[in-house]
Each structure stands twice: as structure tokens, then as C-alpha cells.
Amino acid sequence: MSERPMPRLFLIRHGQTEWSLNGRHTGRTDIPLTAEGERQAAEEAQVLVGEGKIIDPKNICLIFVSPRLRAHRTFHLLFDHLPAIPNHVTTEEVREWDYGEYEGLRPAEIKQRNPGWVIWKDGCPGGESTEEMCRRVDNVIAKVREHHRAWKEEGKGGRDVVIVAHGHFNRVLISRWINFPLSLGTHFNVEPAGVAILGYNHNNLAEPALNALNLYAQPQ
User: Residue 96 and which of 18, 21, 140, 157 are 20 to 30 A apart at CA?
Assistant: First the structure.
């Protein structure tokens, strides 16, 4: 049996934005971090990222980064202080849920239009259905698990994968990672700049687990 340590997935939500602060659904809209969001990510970088720290660049196989400005900026604030930025890809695969007609609206405003609406069962009209969101997230998970398998079984690549993404995306991914329906995500709070660690139990790649949630996030 391989003595390599078990691989991990670090799942990071972008820092605070004006719309995350006031509860607006932010999918396609490309808005920047607030000054507080910039501070969150910059301070987190000094604690979290670096040689001998929790996210050690020598262990990173690949970083998936959402192309939205808020996530892309968070990524750079976390990793630009390193001598070299780790291997990364900017991809729509890890973008936020497409809220369609509900883009930019607060939950109360959506309820006025559709009193019975629940994103976890209804999806978003004009955006992504729950089936589409689940399929997209499952495809990302399959890629992460292949990187993990190659590391654990063959010593290829590195131990860790990182994703810098968004609130609903991360909640869906956590649910699907541990083999539950997408709707379990309603029970997870994923705070701005919070870090989740996903891994495996019992040294077994067939037992995916949630190891930590909202590390380094400011308590709400």
C-alpha cells in the first residue's frame, strides 16, 4: 500500500463583494472585491499559503480558478507573494451558479416573484437547472479525483488540488464530494474567503470526506 499522504482538495470562496455583503445573487455579474474583501484574502495568504504552511506550493498539483474578477483577484492575493505562482487554470467549469432571471436579486425579491422558489430544487429560470449545476460540479470532481488517484497510486503530480470559486458552487461541490444530493448544500454556510478542506477517510480514496469548513473566515 502506498505510504504517500492522502490527497486533499482546498475549496476557497472569493473575498467579500458589495453584493455578497447585501445578499444579492451574483453569478455572471463581474464585480470586484470590496476593500474588506481584499484585506481578507491578503491576510489569509500570510497565514495559509507558503512553504511549510497548510497550502504549501510544493504540494500543489493544480489550481482551478473561476474567471470572475472576484475569484481571480482572490487567487492572486493568495498566491502572488510566492516566488512562483503554482500551476493553475482559469476555467468556466468552476464559475458560480448561473442565476438567470434572478441575477442581482435578493432572496426576498425573488420570493415576491415566486413565493415557493427554492434554488436547491427549482434551479434558476433562464440560468442553470439543478441537473445542469450537478452535472458541471460532478465533472469537476471527476477531474480532481483523477489528480488525486494519480498522486496516491502512482506518485504523479502533487498531493493537493485547489479551487478558488463561489458560494453556491462550493456548497454544491461539498455535497457532491461526500456523495449526497446537491440539495444538502442548503445546510452549509460558506463564508467569503472561507476555506474548506475535502479529503478521504481511512486512507481510502473510495471514502470521500469533509475535513474542515470556513477556516480563516471572519465569523458572521
Answer: 157
* Cell 434558476 sits on residue: 124
Annotation marks residue 44 as catalytic: no
**Alpha helices, DSSP H only, in the chain?**
18-22, 35-48, 69-79, 107-113, 119-122, 130-154, 167-177
Indicate which residue of 44, 96, 103, 128 is catalytic.
Answer: 96
Residuewise pLDDT in 10s, the chain (220 residues): 458 999 999 999 999 999 999 999 999 999 999 999 999 999 999 999 999 999 999 999 999 999 999 999 999 999 999 999 999 999 999 999 999 999 999 999 999 999 999 999 999 999 999 999 999 999 999 999 999 999 999 999 999 999 999 999 999 999 999 999 999 999 999 999 999 999 999 999 999 999 999 998 776 5
